TrEMBL record:
This is Tubulin-like protein CetZ. GTP binds at Q10, A11, G12, G13, K14, G110, T111, G112, E142, N169, N187. The gene is cetZ. GO terms for biological process: regulation of cell shape. The lineage of its organism: Archaea, Methanobacteriati, Methanobacteriota, Stenosarchaea group, Halobacteria. Belongs to the CetZ family.
Length: 392
């Protein structure tokens, strides 16, 4: 699947930058275009791979290149004011070669959290291809303002995009390690998981064609219907057998005891699928009740078989209760077999429930403050009237 990626804010820019690096390393070819948008000049300068001409500084008239300082309302305002600057950069993308937009942003800060939903709304008005979001939730130890920003922005972002893929920093923090120290690893985890999912079906020159291909339309269909998505992943190191290839998969010629090898391959796949779905998800949740799912099995072709994927798919249907579970393989020359599972339209997500609660409480507080201040105002007016009375 070919994506036009737009990294909004610092986290968004760094993750898109890392996707370009992943593309380079693996030859995946998923990033057709990469743009970074920020209100802080220093964050744009710090990027390594996104071309200079695709780095867009917004809000210069308001914040002079210094960022919006976690004020996501200001982030939304500067995005709206300078949306033409962002559009100019997007105009240079051959959008007819792109299957979807992916807007990546940290939900806890100001620029990305405020601006990403504004951009999503703008793109959906102009283009017919899907607009997806990849939203990063802040760690709960980052402080109230980050949680509040995320609570507010999350609701708007889900509404504006065709599907919101979520990564929760909080559940990926290494114990005893600061977030800053852990971002490198976290970002690698993000690009690996989403890279395999979006990379399935992108066959480069000289690469093998999958036995049961996952093409862009299957990814789009899994994401259609909106809502929130999470991704599970599990992998196992294997040896790459240079003698095995596409042919060996059809003939069953894997150089050893054929029936045993086929059974091993199937068992390895089914256990990887279970580990991926029941292990750490990008956004932890109950998988039961998931609306749609997509299973991608990647690895050297001699380690992939249709039977294993079929079994994995059936198991996922039972566990999620969904009748819409798609699956396929993604042959790659890497010395590992990996299962990546996209769970789309998840409903039972404790973290989101907590965020919604925060948003409701914040709204109640705002209402109380407004109520108080209007009562104060009335009292003031009354006081003023009392004071003014003797004059007339
Ligand atoms: N996964 C990941 N999360 C990050 C990274 N950098 C920052 N974050 C998260 O993103 C949130 C802050 O968003 P940023 O992107 O830094 O902020 P911004 O959008 O640039 O907004 P301002 O700095 O307020 O103008 C924090 O809550 C962090 O949890 C990163 O490299 N990777």
């Amino acid at each position: 699947m070919k994506l036009a990626m737009i990294g909004f804010g610092q986290a968004g820019g760094k993750i898109v930058d890392r996707f370009l690096d992943y593309d380079d390393r693996t030859g995946s070819g998923i990033v057709r275009a990469a743009i970074a948008v920020n209100s802080a000049k220093a964050d744009l300068i710090g990027l390594d791979n996104i071309p200079q001409e695709n780095r867009v500084l917004i809000g210069q008239a308001r914040v002079k290149g210094h960022g919006v300082g976690a004020d996501n309302e200001l982030g939304a305002e500067v995005a709206e004011e300078d949306i033409d600057e962002v559009q100019n950069a997007i105009d240079s993308i051959p959008t007819h070669e792109v299957d979807a937009f992916l807007i990546v942003a940290g939900m806890g800060g100001g620029t990305g959290s405020g601006g990403a939903p504004v951009l999503a709304k703008h793109l959906k008005r102009i283009y017919t291809i899907p607009v997806y979001g990849l939203g990063v939730l802040p760690g709960t130890d980052e402080g109230g303002i980050y949680t509040l920003n995320a609570a507010r922005s999350f609701q708007t972002f889900v509404r504006e995009v065709d599907n919101l893929l979520v990564f929760d920093n909080d559940s990926w923090r290494q114990t005893g390690e600061s977030m800053e120290g852990g971002y490198d690893q976290i970002n690698e985890e993000i690009v690996r998981r989403f890279g395999i999912l979006f990379g399935a079906g992108e066959v480069g020159e000289g690469q093998e064609v999958a036995e049961s291909v996952v093409d862009s339309s299957e990814i789009i269909n899994t994401l259609s219907g909106g809502g929130v998505s999470t991704v599970g992943f599990a992998s196992e190191d294997v040896e790459v057998n240079s003698g095995g290839g596409l042919l060996s998969r059809f003939t069953g010629d894997t150089g050893g005891d054929d029936s045993l090898d086929a059974a091993n391959t199937t068992n390895r796949i089914t256990s990887l699928v279970r580990k991926a779905a029941l292990g750490r998800l990008t956004l932890p949740c109950e998988i039961e009740g998931t609306e749609r799912a997509l299973l991608v099995l990647s690895g050297p072709s001699e380690y992939l078989n249709r039977k294993g994927i079929e079994r994995g798919r059936k198991w996922l249907e039972e566990e999620t209760g969904s009748m819409e579970v798609r699956g396929g393989d993604f042959p790659r020359g890497e010395p590992e077999v990996a299962a990546a599972i996209l769970l789309s339209g998840v409903t039972n997500v404790p973290r989101i429930k907590r965020l919604q609660q925060v948003a409701i409480e914040a709204q109640d507080n705002i209402d109380d403050i407004q109520q108080d201040s209007s009562e104060n105002l009335e009292e003031l007016v009354e006081d003023d009237e009392d004071e003014l009375e003797p004059l007339f």
